[in-house]
Predict the structure.
Amino acid sequence: MNDTIASIATSLGVGAISIIRVSGNEAIKIVNKLFKGHDLENVSSHTIHYGYIVNNKEIIDEVLVSVMRSPKTYTKEDVVEINCHGGIASTNKVLELLLLNGCRMAERGEFTKRAFLNGRIDLVEAEAVSDLINSETDIERRVALQGINGNLSKLIQEIRRDLLQLISNIEVNIDYPEYHDIYEVTVNDLKDKIPNIKAKLEKLVKDYEDTRMLYKGINVAIIGRPNVGKSSLLNKLLDSNKAIVTDIPGTTRDIVEGTVYLDGIKLNIIDTAGIRKTDDVVESIGVEKSIEVLGDANLVLLLLNNNEELTNDDKELINKTCNKTTIFVINKNDLETKLNLDNLNLEHVVSINTLDNQGIEVLKDKIKEVFNLDKINNNDFTYITNLRQITKIKESLNILIELIQEIEDGIELDILEMDLKEVWNTLGVITGESYDEELLDDLFKNFCVGK
């Protein structure tokens, strides 16, 4: 932490500009040695200066240099950013000169790691920075920004303050056991406040379950027996001719995948081989793969043919999806209706025609309804965003559930205090109030070098 680090902060390649970031006690001094223009050591903080990067009187690049003095910087150290022309050769040469003049090459995520270690951000905010960089949809971006703004951190800190108050009350009771009324007040406090804390943690868990697909997308499996229009539906949803469409049953022998965004939510759509009993060896392999895909799907679009009566293969597929979130898509609604589903009590049914796009928008609306996407769009986005965080929330929740039972069983206050402290410490790991170096190394290694 005492050395000065440097790295290219923008994608390396041909472009209009590239930015090299330098952070540390010697940042301004080192850049100043290479800069021909104003004396950077005497300029005001948060100012930009025009000049040249030179090496032995040779001009390396024409640049703009931003000078930001500690502590009002990203890392809370002195930070200098050199805006170069966006060529690979010139950018690398400027970085090389910085390294030769006393900088060290930054490790992955080291700028953000320094921001955390210097107290500018906590671990939740640091992870949100990584989420923002890797966001692919507008909702991912908005969720990440809420993390950077500290909304989740504030909620965790609020819960920890409530826990600390309860722990303090128990300490008073232990220190002054002769006051029996204090014991009663303390137990009543626990009975009153612990369920509220538990409810807040349960909401975080539920919201995580509802929104975790934001980050990896909703896996959508299109299934059905051969020649019901699965590949045509895939093409309509993707608005491309990715899958081969023919009138020959069994044309799709392998899975075909594509991605589409629905109101900012990524749908990973998989067109499967028609599922039916077959003696064709190749088609059988495709059928097996389709069944595997069905098991991993978050949403199943089960296609049925409006122009045919329900077959045994159809009934078998309906049974296979009874425990899955399923939308039953009735294709070919332009033809005579021979399909009868009246006795099946199916919850989500949409009628379409892949020849002229009829019903496709209705199907998209149904997907939004099934996954409450409108609710997600209008929510406050105070969500747990990764496995590390949710694991600690669940650990804390389990301890609180046991604690509530211990209160009912009349367990001694010193035992209850130990459980409260364990919850308090566990929640502290989320924000980084307590951590180990291995945790930090594992977290920041997933960042890009310049962040």
Notes: Residues 180-211 form the longest helix (32 residues). The radius of gyration is 30 Å. Confidence is low (pLDDT under 50) at residues 242-254, 274-285. The CA atoms of residues 95 and 198 lie 51 Å apart.
